[in-house]
UniProtKB/TrEMBL annotation:
Residue runs in coiled coils: 112-139
Annotated PANTHER family: HLYD FAMILY OF SECRETION PROTEINS (PTHR30469:SF15), MULTIDRUG RESISTANCE PROTEIN MDTA (PTHR30469)
Protein name: Uncharacterized protein
Keywords linked to the UniProt accession: Coiled coil, Signal
Family the entry assigns: Belongs to the membrane fusion protein (MFP) (TC 8.A.1) family.
Example of a GO cellular component annotation carried by this entry: efflux pump complex
């Protein structure tokens, strides 16, 4: 036993050292973890902008392709024949009455001079016939001549009056032809195409140039005749171009369907501010959204509130605790920058419209001051 105790005594000291080290490690580990937790503070709330979900009456829209056209677009023709001496260049802006083309008017000028001379000759003859009639009247009163000679003088004066009236017509025709030698713009517009060149000979009725009024534009579209019950002049329709939408009244509805396409013609007239904002010119391709059914009440959110991912779409709701919550939604119709949604969204919910892409569920947020749009404010903005 003494020998075994002597052998165990050298092993006891290392074991005691190891036990002491393990105890110290166990005591220091919680302190180290607590120190690390204190060294990594919680990240600050993410700044976001929010807007409220609203309940609105949505009317489903049928989107039809449309084009921008001018209400005044004409191929201006010559009224008389002649050799062309000048034509307005393409791109020239003309006012109503400005010269679009001119033809050689030398022969017409001579015809006018001849008509003037004939008119003056007949007027002189009429003056002579009137004086002759007056003399015969005096002689008849003095019983110097018979009444037959006076009757002949009266007849001569009347014939000269008719000859002069005919000469006036010939003179007016000559002057009209001289004016028609200059083809004038029937309305304000831009020359977009020339049909003749200088030196060519025109026949009466031949086109000279195409003139388009770029300030009198309208949008033309066609819609199925099955939508006739929802369409009438003045009903709101949506004009879409380049990702932007404008609402305006339907100006013209042609209530006659085409036999081949079974479609109605629709026309709207955007104001100049809308045309400039959307960058629309003659020939621009746009879309026209017309009501396809009766309005229905839906929950709608701003388009910027929708986050689209490969797995589906969602919105981020901010509760009273300022914590982000992801809500899956299904999208429906769109109108005036709003999107119909189906899901757990309720009218009045605060939804993130800027900064939602980076938010994680449960992340704290800070709504930017002055950037929160309430439900009433959003509805008022839409109404305007």
């Amino acid at each position: 036993m003494t020998h075994l105790s002597a052998l165990a005594r050298p092993l006891r000291l290392p074991l005691l050292v190891l036990a002491a080290a393990a105890t110290a490690t166990a005591l220091l580990l919680p302190l180290r973890t607590q120190s690390q937790d204190q060294a990594a503070p919680e990240p600050p709330p993410a700044p976001v902008d929010v807007a409220a979900a609203v309940e609105l009456a949505f009317a489903p829209l049928h989107w039809a392709p449309a084009s921008v056209a001018s209400r005044e677009d004409a191929r201006v023709a010559a009224e008389i024949g002649g050799r062309v001496v000048s034509v307005a260049e393409v791109g020239t802006r003309l006012r109503r009455g400005d010269a679009l083309a001119r033809m050689d008017a030398a022969a017409l000028g001579l015809a006018e001079r001849s008509a003037i001379a004939e008119h003056d000759r007949l007027r002189a003859q009429l003056d002579l016939a009137r004086r002759q009639e007056q003399r015969y009247q005096a002689l008849v009163a003095a019983a110097g001549i018979s009444g037959a000679q006076l009757d002949q003088a009266v007849s001569e004066r009347k014939m000269r009056e008719q000859d002069l009236a005919s000469a006036r017509v010939v003179l007016e025709q000559a002057r009209l032809a001289l004016r028609q030698a200059t083809v004038v713009a029937p309305f304000d517009g831009v020359v977009v195409e020339r049909s003749v060149e200088r030196g060519e000979f025109l026949l009466p009725g031949a086109p000279v140039a195409r003139l388009v009024n770029t300030q009198a534009l309208e949008v033309r579209a066609r819609a199925p005749v099955t939508l006739a019950a929802q369409l009438r002049e003045g009903v709101p329709v949506s004009l879409r171009h380049g990702g932007e939408t404008r609402v305006m009244p339907l100006q013209t509805l042609v209530p006659v369907g085409d036999d081949a396409s079974r479609q109605l013609e629709l026309r709207v007239a955007p104001d100049q501010a809308t045309l400039d904002a959307l960058g629309l010119v003659v020939g621009s391709a746009v879309e026209l959204g017309v009501p396809s059914a009766e309005p229905r009440d839906v929950v709608a959110v701003p388009r910027d509130a929708v986050v689209m991912r490969a797995g589906g779409s969602h919105v981020v709701r901010v509760g009273d605790d300022q914590v982000a919550e992801h809500l899956p939604v299904e999208l429906g119709a769109t109108q005036d920058g709003l999107v119909e949604v189906q899901g757990a969204v309720r009218p009045g919910d605060s939804l993130v419209v800027r900064g939602a892409e980076r938010l994680q569920p449960g992340q704290r947020v800070a709504v930017s001051v002055g950037r929160a749009l309430s439900r009433d404010a959003l509805a008022g903005a839409i109404a305007q």
